[in-house]
Every structure is written in C-alpha cells, then in structure tokens.
Amino acid sequence: MGAALLASWPWDNLGLYKYVLYGPLVGKAVASRAWEAASPDRWILLLLLLFGLRALTYQLWSSFSNMLFATRRRRVVRDGVDFDQIDKEWDWDNFLILHALMAAAALCAFPSLRHLPAWDGRGFAVALVAHAAATEPLSYLAHRALHGSSGRLYARYHSLHHSSRVPQPFTAGLATPLEHVALGALMSLPLAAARAAGCASVALAFAYVLAFDSLRAMGHCNVEVVPASLFRAIPALRYVLYTPTYHAIHHTKKEANFCLFMPLFDLLGGTIDRRSWDMQRKMSAGVDEVPDFVFLAHVVDVMQSLHVPFVMRTFASTPFSVQLFLLPMWPFAFLVMLAMWVWSKTFVISCYNLRGRLHQIWAVPRYGFQYFLPFAKDGINRQIELAILRADKMGVKVLSLAALNKNEALNGGGTLFVNKHPDLRVRVVHGNTLTAAVILNEIPKGTAEVFLTGATSKLGRAIALYLCKKRVRVMMMTLSTERFQKIQKEAPAEFQQYLVQVTKYRSAQHCRTWIVGKWLSPREQRWAPPGTHFHQFVVPPIIGFRRDCTYGKLAAMRLPKDVRGLGACEYSLERGLVHACHAGGVVHFLEGYTHHEVGAIDVDRIDVVWEAALKHGLRPA
C-alpha cells in the first residue's frame, strides 16, 4: 500500500531550516518597509505578528502545563511526559508554517482582505454565530470520520495525534498535513462569514485565531483549569465549553467526546462519555499524590535555571549547555533569581515513575554561588530542613540531597537535620556511597597508583581508604598533615603504607590515573603525563585543557529501563542518566534501607551499594 496523501510533512527533513519557508514573507516585509503605516504590504507584518503570537500562545500553555509546583494536583493523566513523546512533538509548529502559507495565499488571491479596518464590533457576533453553526458541527463530523468504523482514516492519519500518551499543548500540533489543512479551512469559515457580511476587521482576525489556539491548547494541557463551581452555577455552560478533563477522556477512550470546543455536538451525536462531569469535578478539586522518593536539587546558575520543563520543554529534554537563544532571557531569569531569594520555597521541578512508584525532583530556591556566601548558610539550611519536614509529613520514604545541599561545611552531609529531628520517618540520604562506588569502578583493574585531589573531603577519604585496602598506592594531595594522618589511621595497619601524603602536583608527574575532587587549573593539569585519565567528583567539573589526556564526567548512572515518564535531562548529563547521588537515593529506596545515609561514608558499604544498584537495573554511565 502506497503512502497516504498528505500524511507526512514535506519539510520533515529540513530540521530548523524549515523556518526558511517564512523567508519570502519576511523578505517582502523588509523590502517594502512594512512597519511603516503607508506601506502597501503592512498586511505581511500583521500576518507574521499573528503567527508569532500563535506560537507564543502554545508555548505559554506548555509552560503552565509543566509547572508541577502549581498544577500537579489537577493533572488529569498523572504520568510524566517522556523523551519519546517530546521527540515526537518536537516539530509541533509545522502546522503554523502551513497555516501561514495558506493565509498568505488567501491574501494574495483576494487583495481586498489586505485592507480590512482595524475594528468592527459587528464582526464578532457574526463570527461567533458562524463558529457555532458551521465550524463546530463540521469539525465534529470530520473528527468522527477520522475515528470511523473501518479504521482506515484513523490508521493513516489520526493515529499520530493519539500516539502521545499524555496530552500536552504541543500535542495539539501533532497531526498530519491533511488534518491541519482541514483545520485551517474550518478556522477560516467564521472570518469569511464576517467578510461576506461586510464587518470583518484585523481585530477580529487576531481575536478569533488566538482564542481558537488558546482553547485548543487548553484542551490538551492536561491540567483542569475550569472550576467545577462554574458548571454548578450555570449547568448549561457544560455544553458550550469543553474542559481539559473532557478532552483527555477522548484521548484515552477514543470513542467519545469528539467535539471541537462545544460538548453540545457530542450530546446531539450521542457520543458524550457520562463520566465527564464527575471526573471534571474531581480533577478541579485536585487529587493529592505522594512521592515515594524525592531528589532535593538546587539551581546551579542563572543560565541553568532556564533548563527546566516549565520554561522550554524541548530544551530541558537535552543536556544543558549555554545556547545563544538563552541570552535575551538572562535579565528576566536574573530578576526571578532575586525574587526566589526573597520569597520562594522548595518546589517541584519534574517527576518520573519507577516500578509503579512516583519519584519527584524538588529544587531548593538557591543558586550555586549563594552556598558560598557566609550570611546565606542559615537560610539555605532552613530551606533544606523545611523540605525534609514537608517530605516527612507527606509520607515520602527517602529524600536524597543533591550537590551542595549536602556540603560538609554547610550541614555535615545531612547530619545536622538527622540530629535535630531524631524521629524523622523519611530517610535522609546523601548518596555519596554510590558516588564513591561509581568512581572506584571506573578505575581500570590492575591500577597500582593513583593521584587524588580533594583527598581529605568526604568522598576523597572514602576513595583513599577503599583503594589502600586493594593495595593501590594513593598519593593524597593535601597541605594538612593532621587531616591526612587522621584518615591514614582509619586504615588497617597493614594498609596504611599505601596512603602517601603529597603537597605538590609535580609529585604525580608519572601517574596516569588522576582522581579529581578539587578544581585544577590548566597549569596544574600540565603536571599530568600524556595519556592521563582524569576521573572527577569536583563540582563544577574541570575543563579539559589537555588534548593528550582524557577526561571523565561527573559520576552518574543510567536509570533502569523500566523508568516511565522521564522527560528532562539532569543538568549536563545525557538522557536517562542521573548523578550518582540521585541514583544512590533510588537504590536506598528500592532496597528498603531503614538507616539514614548522612555524614561520613561507610567504606564497608561501597561494594554492597554498588551490587544493589546493578541488581535493580541501574548501569554505569
């Protein structure tokens, strides 16, 4: 069977170059100085402005939909949006290009449309009647035809739209060209009716098209935004305006709730799902969900604060890197940082499911540099403490501290909170036992000597003690003889000889295995011999200046294959990877450990935790 007509986009392979299709319109607008009032091509500027606003409408609804800190209780489909769905909807705006070309063609074919008045209030009434009398019933009939009993149209065309498991505003754009040609034609009917009646206007075109897009995005946003009290006060309104719950039922059930925006036509066609109103009332009231595991992160810097699903979902689904398109957003993000410093509290960023259990990522509203301000220490600890107490009250089983949230100088690796609240039911975990295990298992078997910086830190201590028991010579870079000797005395007497204090980087000029727990400048890296591999647990990771050496990334593990709803990358890690301390908390939960993992790392548990991670399907990055 050949390919179905208009079942795929002709510019599918162009990637970002598809936006060149706007080029003729942009070029014509610039050439004719369309921004000037006297320009005959001012209509082009208005057309481009309209389609920019259309794209913004869907983006704003997407941002709202992904604000889990504000919307999680009213989500209709409770699953997270995974990478597969995000990739499928990556080119959601294809239909905007198509509609722009259709609109430009219409304006060229009918020159009188280019000279509409700015305002004519009569056109709004005509368009409203035409929408209810023509656009709504024809959309309903077309939609039912796509779900027809033969299944051929559904398989060839409409199944793509229903392939997204969780409705999202961008899901509204996931459809074939044929469907969007039909949608564009149906959208034009009320505007054409107003033109035929002699009362069309630029304001009507903008208002109708943007209202149409907003309703489509709302219906797919997966968050119940229509208060049930509105339908209780005006019962008939439930047949005039659909809701996200109403449309979500169509996406899950498929044989009911076909209307465009007005359930009246489902009532007339006998296709209303009778659960719609009860379910809408329940979703409007909100449904509590308690995570079993929480990873308590913090913001790295102003740029990284934009790497979250509720800012740009597609960007958050790729490893973080500074991009040029972020620069115009920096001033706004900086103001948000200041506001968060004053008013914000810990909030939910994203979630995923693992083996039927909800895992959430929360963020302390503090940025990396703030952790090094002496006067900010108490405030940060208070934020972390409140998050732990909130998790405890909710019934969270395990809370894992990320990065600087478990800084030894800040709170003793979480010890502060456990000692202050001895009756905590939630298990507080720093996850560094697994971090140490990941680093140690990256070191090739047979290695006889390593050079260790950050040697007296929590992780450095554990790595040194573990390796010396394996008869690996560890050159511990530290100026503090007292701290070195304290760690050396922890090792069994027969292994203490393998721990050696060094105070200069030149001491490692013949060692090809460097374990970096403290920032290295280019000058310090020069002491490493060619072929050296730099293992890292320093945050942020060192910059790879040496082309004749290799650089490992921060310790990370890949989540099990049965993870569901994971759609955001953790900082600069690849999809599906999480930092080892995050993975350590997951293992703590999956194993059902009842102890807190805070303070110093128990070296004897490194292999135990590593084996447990592998048993549960986590894999090294």
Note down, in words, how this protein is organized:
- With 621 residues, this protein is of the alpha/beta class.
- It has 3 domains: 15-226, no CATH class; 293-429 and 577-600, Leucine Aminopeptidase, subunit E, domain 1 (3-Layer(aba) Sandwich); 434-552, Rossmann fold (3-Layer(aba) Sandwich).
- The protein is 43% helix and 11% strand.
- It has 24 helices and 15 strands.
- It has a 6-stranded mixed β-sheet with strand order 5-4-1-3-2-13.
- Strand 7 (473-477), helix 21 and strand 8 (499-502) form a beta-alpha-beta unit.
- Helix 5 runs parallel beside helix 8, helix 6 (122-146) runs antiparallel to helix 8 (177-196) and helix 19 crosses helix 24 (606-615).
- The model has no long low-confidence stretch (mean pLDDT 96).
- Belongs to the sterol desaturase family.
In short:
The chain has helices spanning 23-31, 42-65, 68-71, 83-88, 94-109, 122-146, 152-158, 177-196, 202-219, 228-233, 244-253, 264-269, 276-285, 313-316, 330-343, 377-394, 408-411, 415-420, 432-442, 458-469, 481-490, 522-525, 580-591, 606-615, and strands spanning 293-299, 347-354, 357-367, 398-401, 427-429, 449-452, 473-477, 499-502, 513-516, 533-536, 550-554, 556-558, 563-564, 577-579, 619-620. It is an alpha/beta fold. The two termini are 43 Å apart.
Give the helices and strands, then pairings.
Blueprint: H1 23-31, H2 42-65, H3 68-71, H4 83-88, H5 94-109, H6 122-146, H7 152-158, H8 177-196, H9 202-219, H10 228-233, H11 244-253, H12 264-269, H13 276-285, E1 293-299, H14 313-316, H15 330-343, E2 347-354, E3 357-367, H16 377-394, E4 398-401, H17 408-411, H18 415-420, E5 427-429, H19 432-442, E6 449-452, H20 458-469, E7 473-477, H21 481-490, E8 499-502, E9 513-516, H22 522-525, E10 533-536, E11 550-554, E12 556-558, E13 563-564, E14 577-579, H23 580-591, H24 606-615, E15 619-620
Helix pairs in contact: 1-2, 2-5, 2-9, 5-8, 6-8, 11-13, 19-20, 19-23, 19-24
GO molecular function: aldehyde oxygenase (deformylating) activity; iron ion binding; oxidoreductase activity
Pfam families: CER1-like_C, FA_hydroxylase
Organism: Zea mays (Maize)
